[in-house]
Predict the 3D structure of the following.
Amino acid sequence: MSISMNLDGRIAVVTGASSGIGAATAEHLASLGARVALVARRADRLDDLAARIADGGGRALVLAADVTDAAALREAAGRVRSEWGPAGLLFNNAGVMLPAPVEQLAADQWRHQIDLNVTGLMNAVEAFLPQLVESAAANGVADLVNTSSILAQNVLPGFAVYSATKAYVTHLSRHLRAELGGKDVRVSAIEPGIVGTELQDHVTDQGVRAWLEGSREVMEWLTPQDVAATVGFLASLPPRVNLQQVTIMPTRQAS
Ligand SMILES: NC(=O)c1ccc[n+]([C@@H]2O[C@H](COP(=O)([O-])OP(=O)(O)OC[C@H]3O[C@@H](n4cnc5c(N)ncnc54)[C@H](OP(=O)(O)O)[C@@H]3O)[C@@H](O)[C@H]2O)c1
């Protein structure tokens, strides 16, 4: 199998594009030739990223939107279609991790994670799936890449709700792959271990924060660019090849 890392002509949408994995992936996809629509709430960050992409010779479209707002995402999808045509790659990546022992009953944080990691992800599927199917019919392949986590597989006290949202993402991805493969839409779940991003800054539980700091002393965390390169690889594979699930871990992270 030969792989040409060239996404010329592809129209990509990245949710969670204002920082971390999403920002790095948007930049990487643009460097491979894709036009990239940037979705997140912080418009100023998206403007800066779009300017960097343009400086590098790429094309970006800023779509400031909250993915928990289904109507806003439908509107964003309409903008992509009217400006560029149907999207052929959705990196469905916006998410938040708010771990805490379950007995703290941090129900607001439970709801936040479910609203964003599950419902927000589904809102993006609703808004962009018709375009992926249309693009696959026209171009022979399209990609839906969902950001899950190694915690979709593993059990770690304190992470119950986050893990459960990511188990949803991985299992949903398997089902969607089976349903959409016949239409040449590839579906993949990416399951990263620890990646150094703003994700860790949102953690409020002091025990988990201390655990994260400790882990940084014994291993080199992944960078957002490591995950970005993986997404670029998935999208560059020949149309017949669909990596269903990719687990990407820091070498020294055991589980
Ligand atoms: N970092 C890790 O160790 C790790 C490991 C496994 C999986 N992941 C997953 O990777 C994904 C990306 O996280 P990250 O590590 O890159 O963290 P991050 O730097 O905090 O990025 C999260 C992104 O999601 C966006 N976002 C948050 N709420 C949103 C909303 N309501 N609507 C639209 N966008 C929203 C944020 O932008 P705005 O605030 O501007 O909206 C930001 O761009 C997440 O799904 C996370 O669960 C991360």
In short: The beta strands are 11-15, 35-40, 59-64, 89-92, 142-147, 185-192, 245-248. The chain has one domain: 11-248.
